[in-house]
Amino acid sequence: MIRLKSIIHGTCLDLSSEGKGVLKVGQDVVFCDGLFIGEEADVEILYQRAGVYFAKVRKLYKISKDRIQPECKVCTICGGCQFQQLNYRAQLDFKTKRVKNAFNRIAHIKDVEIKPCIGMLDPYNYRNKIQMPFGKDKKGNVVYGFYKQNSHEIIPVKECMIEDKRASSILWDIKELVKEMKIPIYNEYNGKGILRYVLIRTSYHYDELMVVLVTSMMNFPGQNNFLKALLSKHPEITTVVENINPRHTNVILGEKEKILYGSGYIKDSILGLTFDISASSFYQVNPVQVEKLYQNALNLIDFHKNEIVLDAYSGVGTIGLIASKNAKHVISVEINKAAVKNAITNAKKNNIKNIEFHQGDAGEFISNYDGDLDIVIMDPPRKGSDNKFLSTLINKKIKKVIYISCDPETLARDIEYLSKDYEVTYIQPVDMFPMTCHIETICCLSLANKKI
Ligand code: SAH
Fold it and tell me: Do strands 400-405 and 154-156 pair parallel, antiparallel, or not at all (unpaired)?
């Protein structure tokens, strides 16, 4: 039994899947942020959850050769990145190992090669979407930034090292304008005030940039003057959207939207196709790595222009549209209405006709579908897929399944379900989220190769 607030001296033995240093004190396990394998430190016990203690570093005695001076000044207090202090090579090794552990531990698959995680040449300033809460600090000053880990206290962030560089000066100037024009900041405790979040989406391949103002009410006072001033300071902004979220919730975006300037979307491209992206639609956040991710996934298919492909959990249709160039026909299914609408426009704009889009639950759709299907590409959200979807893959004896996942643990859980009928033939982690513990994985499953 460890007392809260006590100081423990120990050595970091491993990293947890969330990138926290793991220490052992007798039978007890302690997770500590910003502590890396082999490091020796005094750590302060902060709290206990589900039988594990959580701690922060008080004093470092032995330092890992992989520790680096962080580029970010607030990385030890901001909850966004876990690995600003770890060199990039070690980050990639951690990610490969995290996938390997998940397959061993959860899927009970040990004899399959996990390819080394594919990294970035420059692992900073990659994010094309940044969303920051606005609030007031204790002195009443307007601030924006990230929530401190496990809290709703905003850590002011002037320059985030993983976001697109174009976003930081816009955020700063929005804050200055908000102060100058006395636009009331939303108070999440009493529900008063107007401005809640600012979201910025940048296009990598085009000079297009979207600002989304998330507010508690439509047409806030002074809106036109605010807009004029913002656009004159930042002519690079091509569209401004107001998203209205009056609800008392942690969900950032509300249902209603109003275009204040421009078209209400930006376009970007992946592997030669262009995509419209609106304020609320899902779009991969790393425009450099997404090309490697999709290319590696699609290379697993030996296309002969006669394949019927299902792109499940399809977002704005990106993977399916790219696959359609080489397939006979693609069927896409996605639950989010706005994303399906974007996907239909994306097909038209790219002049692609051998694709159809369906809105609904992927499991529901595939179990009711009675046409031919040769290959399924699935890219579910972090919580993974469900039994309805997975059991239908087995029942329909789909020959090849390419599973793209942003969570190795739920991926491994789903693979364990499929592994009685499928053989895993390829596992490739791709680093879509440098500086964080998150990792994307491509996994290929083959029915034909399953040894009986
Ligand atoms: N393949 C896309 C999107 C992946 S993100 C891309 O690479 O950009 C996962 C997507 O699954 C999201 O767009 C989300 O809206 C969708 N989704 C979540 N639950 C779903 C369900 N039950 N059925 C279908 N789609 C779902």
Answer: unpaired
How many C-beta atoms surround the C-beta of residue 282 within 10 A?
Answer: 19
Stated pTM of the model: 0.94
Selection from 207, 200, 210 nearest residue 239 by Cα: 210
Q: Which residues contact 342 (CB under 8 A, 6 or more apart)?
A: 265, 275, 276, 277, 278, 281, 316, 317
Query: Is the CB of residue 404 less than 8 Å from the CB of residue 414?
Result: no
- Count of C-beta atoms within a 10 Å radius of residue 209: 22
CA–CA dist 73, 157 (Å, integer): 9
Alpha-carbon separation of residue 380 from 70, 269, 307, 309 (angstroms): 33, 21, 22, 16
| Closest by CA position to 184, among listed 146, 136, 138, 128 | 136
Would you say 313 and 379 are in contact if contact means Cβ atoms under 8 Å apart? yes
Residue identifier of the C-alpha nearest atom 10 of ligand 1: 313
Task: Kindly report the protein residue whose alpha carbon is nearest to atom 22 of ligand 1.
Answer: 361
Altogether, the residues listed in the chain come to a count of 452
Residue 1 binned pLDDT confidence (cut-offs 50, 70, 90): confident
Asked if the model's pLDDT at residue 399 lies above 70, the reply is yes
And the tokens for 265? 């979307």
The backbone region for 26, taken as left when phi is positive above 0, alpha when psi lies in -120 to 50, beta otherwise, is left
- Report the distance separating Cα 292 and Cα 312, nearest Å: 19
Distance from Cα 195 to the centre of ligand 1, integer Å: 29
Instruction: Tell me if 386 CB under 6 Å of ligand 1.
Output: no
**What residues contact 203, with CB distance under 8 A and at least 6 apart?**
128, 209, 266, 267, 268, 277
pLDDT band of residue 150 (cuts 50, 70, 90) is confident
Ligand 1 near 294 CB (within 6 A)? no
